[in-house]
Amino acid sequence: MSVHELDLFLLVGSAVTLCAILAVRLTSVAGLPSLLVYLLMGVALGDAGFGIHFNDAELAHSLGFAALALILAEGGVTTSWRVLRPSMRLGMSLATIGVAVSVGVMAVGAHYVLGLPWELAVLLGAVTSPTDAAAVFSVLRVVPLPRKLTGALEAESGLNDAPTVVLVTLIAAGTVHDHSWWVVVLIVAGELVLGLVAGLLVGLAGAWILRRVSLPSSGLYSLSVLALCFLADAGASILHGSGFAAIYVAALVLGNAELPHRQVTRGFAEAVAWLAQIGLFVMLGLLLSPSTLEWSIVGKALVAGLLLTFIARPLAVLVAMVVQPLSAREGAFLSWAGLRGAVPVVLMTIPLADGVPGALQLFDLVFVLVVVYTLVTAPTLPLVARFLGLIQPRDPRAFELEVAVLERIAADLLQITITPRSRLHGVEVGELRLPRGSSVSMVIRDGDSIPAELRTVLKHGDDLLVVTPRALRERTERRLRQVSRHGRLAGWVRSL
Predict the structure, then answer these.
(1) pTM above the 0.85 mark?
(2) Of the residues 95, 197, 256, 285, which has the fewest C-beta atoms closer than 10 A?
């Protein structure tokens, strides 16, 4: 690459990145994952638009897996174990049993309804069964849902890539026919378990080391966490384990450990993940050639999407709920919230790179399915949650302070917005009766800061800044929720 070509590449790349960043605001208002805009940007830059030619499936496969690894690392680092823990059994069940049910239903439907040969039918079931971490994290974290639903969906999206990657790889390599079905199940389970163990060991060892070294810059801690995540990924893959499972678990452990400069690390992980998402989805859009897209493929994509959304996904949720029963309303929401995104399209690059017959047409089918049904499901999630009565009052939003290297500071800063329905309105600061050691440091009203005195009366629209030791954070949040729902006599009235 010459200097002139490098300058041209940087010009186009920076322009695309800036447009993609500006598109985030538009998609967040509309309730859509930004991946759709990025995919369409890639299509516009490709053969049908600006004429950038890209059809290297093997390169797309490698870059796609690297981008997914970064996205999973960010998901693990920014996920609270406190939220995830109550729903971990359900999340694991959705990522394993649920995926198996979905693959089976989709394979049978694709063979008998769409007329696909069994190999392509199973391949379609395998690539469309996992939910997408980027789509789930971007959409669900702005919908105030019960913790068990949010935790289950986030755990599922972080872990269900692992078994499907193994299955798709076996099918694309043509070796799946060499084994009995139970051997394939054992291979998938073994790789998943090995990946989970590798991620856990690397995460625990990395956290132990980082707590005991004193690095001269906060940025070095961010790089160390990311390097440890990729160490887990590569190490597990070399040992024939699931690299995706390893990187997610390692990131989850590191993100919830008491490490120095946690907030800087999370900000760095989010920035890198956004860049990975933009590059990934634009690249996948470049792979699509609209001129070769047949109407029959579009029709099959719509039928496959109906089968996935209204039969395969609900059955998968129903079977997965055996390990952790939910109400009918919660099960219905989980069925509708199976967001697909880049993962199915990235998985399709495996058979494309291996030259599987019919893979190109199947890639087009999966691409159309992802775009259409993401447009349908993502914007309607808040409406469905509200219709099912699952919307909850927003809990206090926490912005953690950085932890000093010597661990002499271990406190969190909570920002609480007093909503129009909150009964915090009219309560004096002294009447909050927060746990000893926690205190309201500031009240922000109409853009002005007000000293938080004991007789300061709170009003609708106020923002409270509450400082609490990390050990008291759960008790402090619980007390604030009590007063918000029951007023100043919360606790006393309930004890009578």
Answers:
(1) no
(2) 197
